């Protein structure tokens, strides 16, 4: 078997095992949720606050790492190493922004679902929102540092729309090749994840109280993702 | 079919860093790095720019490897 095929099979296996494990654990957790639920925001298994705390931790971690890389970039004399440090810092902060947003949203949804109004929960929500703002502020500072150091490839942060396209036009051929390659990988990864999630949500809905919406939502995402891809390839045939 | 190249060797001969070569032919350092590693085949324009800079024919810098030994 070729190396590529073997790697693909490994990924499929990881996704299937991960999906089965996730499904089994969450099904077990939901069926025993009565025994595991605690009052307030105390840490309980399968409760959203655990997920929220994990996102919060990931967000703080990525923010700190991003700042560290940026400071290292300022001290680095080697231009090539510096460039790598700055791009790592920007990527980490982007990832951290998403985790902070997801963390805030999970906490907010928990507050709504469980009707929580206690001071600790509100404090956590404020911290989460501050964390989102801290990530956004850091990202804008990182863009300023990037634009100052790489004047040929300035990213226009003042344009709400079209800034990414304008930046893409400034890239040279190999950089565009990297973007296309990375985008194709991301497309495949999303497709495979959606495959697994469509089956998992369907099975989960069928076994517990049947809810069609999550399953349909994923199915729509799957169709939109593939339609966009086929539409683009069709243009060049 | 793989495209081998002598970019690293020529860069060393001209005592240029990746960044300096990139600036000379108006591309990014990543592009030079990708070409040297053989992960990216440059366009004809870029290959000609390199040939002009190194004062060597394109086919000396880039060699189409069809399985024969690369010398």
Automatic annotation (TrEMBL), chain A:
The keyword Ribonucleoprotein does not apply. The chain crosses the membrane at residues 12-30, 50-71, 92-113, 119-138, 186-206, 212-230. InterPro entries: DUF3169. The keyword Nucleus does not apply. Keywords: Membrane, Transmembrane, Transmembrane helix. Pfam families: DUF3169 (PF11368). It comes from the Bacteria. This is DUF3169 family protein.
TrEMBL record, chain B:
One of its GO terms (molecular function) is DNA binding. CDD domains: HTH_XRE. Residues 7-61 form the HTH cro/C1-type domain. InterPro entries: Cro/C1-type_HTH, Lambda_DNA-bd_dom_sf. Pfam families: HTH_3. Keywords: DNA-binding. This is Putative transcriptional regulator. It comes from Paenibacillus algorifonticola. The lineage of its organism: Bacteria, Bacillati, Bacillota, Bacilli, Bacillales.
């Amino acid at each position: 078997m070729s190396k590529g095929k073997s790697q693909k099979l490994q990924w499929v296996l990881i996704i299937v095992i991960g999906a089965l494990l996730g499904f089994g654990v969450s099904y077990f957790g939901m069926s025993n949720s009565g025994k595991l639920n605690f009052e307030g925001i105390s840490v309980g298994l399968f409760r959203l606050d655990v997920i929220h705390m994990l996102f919060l931790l990931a967000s703080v971690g990525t923010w700190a790492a991003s700042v560290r890389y940026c400071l290292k970039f300022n001290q680095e004399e080697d231009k090539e190493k510096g460039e790598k440090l700055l791009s790592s810092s920007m990527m980490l902060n982007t990832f951290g922004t998403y985790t902070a947003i997801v963390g805030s949203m999970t906490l907010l949804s928990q507050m709504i679902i469980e009707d929580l109004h206690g001071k600790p929960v509100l404090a956590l929500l404020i911290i989460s929102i501050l964390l989102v703002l801290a990530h956004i502020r850091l990202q804008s500072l990182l863009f300023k540092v990037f634009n100052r150091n790489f004047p040929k490839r300035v990213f226009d942060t003042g344009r709400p729309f079209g800034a990414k396209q304008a930046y893409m036009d400034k890239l040279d051929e190999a950089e565009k090749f990297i973007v296309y390659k990375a985008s194709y990988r991301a497309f495949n990864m999303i497709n495979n994840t959606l495959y697994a999630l469509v089956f998992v949500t369907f099975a989960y809905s069928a076994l517990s109280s049947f809810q069609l919406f999550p399953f349909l939502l994923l199915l729509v995402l799957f169709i939109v993702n593939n339609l966009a891809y086929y539409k683009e390839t069709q243009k060049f045939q | 079919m793989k495209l081998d190249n002598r970019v690293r060797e020529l860069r060393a001969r001209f005592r240029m860093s990746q960044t300096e070569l990139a600036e000379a032919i108006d591309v990014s350092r990543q592009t030079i790095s990708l070409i040297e590693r053989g992960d990216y085949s440059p366009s004809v324009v870029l290959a000609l720019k390199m040939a002009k800079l190194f004062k060597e024919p394109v086919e000396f810098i880039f060699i189409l490897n069809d399985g024969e030994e690369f010398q």
